[in-house]
Structures are given as structure tokens and as C-alpha cells.
Amino acid sequence: MSLRICSLRPAARDSDWVVKLIDVYPDNNPADQKMAGYQLMVVDEIFRGRYRQSFEKPSAIAANLINEYVIDLRANNHTFKKGHRVMVQVQSTLVPTLRSQPAEVRREHLQGSALGLSDCDAARL
What we know:
Blueprint: E1 2-6, E2 16-24, E3 39-48, E4 66-70, E5 85-91, H1 103-111, H2 119-123
Antiparallel strand pairs: 1-4, 2-3, 2-5
């Protein structure tokens, strides 16, 4: 999966990205009503932003620039049955599974500018 993401926080050097592929069961499931609307996570992947270009040479994320992240959801032998829906979730945390960013990065996130219009907004597709 390819994501194009822009950071609005000038001081943030890193970010985590979590992508999940989910099989959503039909809202009306006559075979098993307990499974109606159930969301089955097929695969998930966690990606730390500083490794977007190389795992050998991590690099900080620049603010107000669109960065591309290629996240491998690995091959999976799952079949989405008729009536099921495909859901993709993208989030920037998966607590407590994923350890939080180091303290100095968290402080920089908190000290960053308030969210607002930026060069990212103008470049949005």
C-alpha cells in the first residue's frame, strides 16, 4: 500500500503509521447473527516514518512536505466473501502494541505549531 502523508508539525522528526486490512461481515448475517457487522483484521503492518527511504539510514521527516510511505501488507490467503466489505484503517498509534515514540520526539510533537492550513493543504490530491 502506498500512502502520501504530510506532517504539519515542524518539530516532529518521526511518526508511526499503522495500516490494517479488515474484512467487515454483512450487517445482516443470517448464517450467524452474532457475526453481523463483525470486523475481522486480516493483516496489519506498523511502519516507523524515519525508515521511509532506508532501514540502514533513517532520516527525519520534514514538515509541510508530502512524503510517500510504501507499506507492505504481506501476502495473505484470505477471501472476502460475497456481501462482505473491505475496510482499510490508517492510524498513527497502536498502543499498547507499539511502543510510543522516544520522549524527545513526543516533546517536539507537543511543542509543534497548532494544526492549520499549510503547504500540505495546497498540495493535497
